[in-house]
Specification:
Elements (H helix, E strand, L loop, with lengths): L2 H19 L8 E5 L5 H9 L4 E4 L2 H10 L6 E4 L8 H7 L2 E5 L2 H10 L7 E6 L16 H9 L4 E7 L8 H20 L6 E3 L6 H6 L4 E4 L1 H4 L7
Parallel strand pairs: 1-2, 1-8, 2-3, 3-4, 4-5, 5-6, 6-7
Helix pairs in contact: 4-5
Length: 230
């Protein structure tokens, strides 16, 4: 069994145990394998081990891998910052976008989504830690953005995404994740049901699941350390 397969199985076991410990039903949390910077061959290997959902942060990388792996039934999630001039590629290629932070981006994705494809699944990204360096809308601005996105014809609003600051403090982390849970509950009270909380990565997966995550984005624990060009 290959190293990638072993790593995938280990993450799946950790996810299942964290789900059990949180008192939730088996299968309540989906695993998104984040393959950014890794070659298509690695994606193909992890796919062969049973994984079907993959996340990419860079538009050109998503486009290239989706083309090279078109023979596979992959569900592609775009999870990185998205500029206005790159929305068409994502609208035509991805099945999900997690990083909606401005209405303009959502409007462009809806307008550019090909009519023969089903609506694009989207999440609104919320800056739960208030860091200037982090993408995402402010929590106070999220309800209005969610309502506006929900009205766009070629999008299907699914939920919320966050990337809290790295911290060893469990209470701080739980508070960051709780922001999304509270927003989800608030929108449900308004009649807008959101079924997805995209939160948790390799380092904080268990805490995110305990806080109610329905989708964890795991890269390093599956594919290994990333090596970025200098």
């Amino acid at each position: 069994m290959s190293q990638l397969t072993l790593a995938l199985h280990a993450v799946q076991a950790q996810l299942a145990e964290a789900t059990r410990l949180s008192g939730r039903e088996a299968g309540a949390v989906q695993l998104l394998a984040v393959s950014k910077t890794f070659p298509a061959a690695a994606v193909r290997e992890v796919y062969a081990a049973g994984q079907r959902a993959f996340g990419e942060n860079y538009v050109q990388e998503l486009q290239a891998k989706a083309a090279e792996l078109a023979d596979l039934a992959i569900t592609w999630h775009f999870i990185g910052p998205l500029q206005s001039n790159k929305t068409r590629i994502v609208a035509e290629t991805a099945h999900w976008v997690h990083s909606i932070e401005r209405l303009k981006i959502a409007e462009r994705l809806s307008a550019q989504r090909p009519a023969h494809l089903p609506p694009l699944n989207v999440c609104v990204q919320v800056n739960v830690s208030g860091e200037d360096s982090k993408s995402g809308c402010a929590p106070a601005d999220a309800p209005a953005l969610l309502r506006a996105v929900a009205a766009l014809p070629q999008l299907r609003l699914r939920g919320l995404m966050c990337i809290p600051e790295p911290t060893p403090d469990a209470a701080t982390l739980a508070a960051r994740f709780a922001v999304l849970r509270q927003l989800q509950a608030q929108m449900a009270d308004e009649g807008l049901a959101l079924d997805t909380l995209s939160m948790g990565m390799s380092s904080d997966m268990a805490a995110a699941i305990a806080a109610g995550s329905t989708m964890v984005r795991v890269g390093t624990a599956i594919f290994g350390a990333r090596h970025y060009p200098a």
